[in-house]
Amino acid sequence: MSAYIVFIRKSLTNKDEMKQYSKLAKQASEGHTIKPTVFYGTVEPLENIETDGVAILEFPNMAEARAWYESPAYQQAKQHRDLAAEYMVFLTEGLHREG
Questions:
Q1: Do the beta carbons of residue 87 and residue 8 sit within 8 Å?
Q2: Which of 59, 95, 53 is closest to 74 using CA atoms?
Q3: Nearest to 37, CA basis, from 94, 98, 99
Q4: Tens digits of per-residue pLDDT, 80-92?
Q5: Does 71 score more than 80 pLDDT?
Q6: Which phi and psi (to 5°) does residue 62 adopt?
Q7: Closest listed residue to residue 84, CA positions, set 20, 13, 22, 23
Q8: What is the DSSP code string of 20-82?
Q9: How much of the chain, in percent, has pLDDT values that exceed 90?
Q10: CB-based burial label for 52 (10 Å; 0-12, 13-18, 19+)
């Protein structure tokens, strides 16, 4: 069953750190099956959310999503993300499709 990591950026405070994060996060994706389904397009808040941007990454399953997120390469990138912006991040399972 597909799984998704959702990144909600509340505010960007350091563009240089974000550039470093973007570079390292891309490198951390090598060898993982990741499909960006949403990547910082226009956001129209409808209820109780303030956001500067949203990214949603699709993975084949929860274990693979967690393996990418917890990988040393992504954790190195995350250090720069934490210096660059305030985020809310969560992992969620997709719909189970029979068939």
A1: yes
A2: 59
A3: 94
A4: 999 999 999 999 9
A5: yes
A6: -60, -40
A7: 13
A8: HHHHHHHHHTTTS--EEEEES------SS---SEEEEEEESSHHHHHHHHHSHHHHHHHHHHH
A9: 91
A10: middle
Instruction: Look at residue 95 and tell me whether its pLDDT is greater than 90.
Output: no
Q: Return the closest-CA partner of residue 18 out of 65, 68, 87, 69.
A: 87
Element (H, E) at 36: strand 35-39
Terminal C-alpha separation, the chain: 12
Beta-carbon contacts of residue 72 (< 8 Å; ≥ 6 apart) = none
What amino acid occupies position 90?
A: F
**What are the tokens at 51?**
């956001």
Lookup result for tokens 């397009």: 41
Local structure of residue 60 (DSSP, 8 states): S
- Find out whether 23 and 73 touch, Cβ atoms under 8 Å: no
The answer to whether 55 and 29 are in contact (CB under 8 A) is: no
Phi-psi category of residue 81: left, alpha or beta, with phi > 0 → left and psi -120 to 50 → alpha? alpha
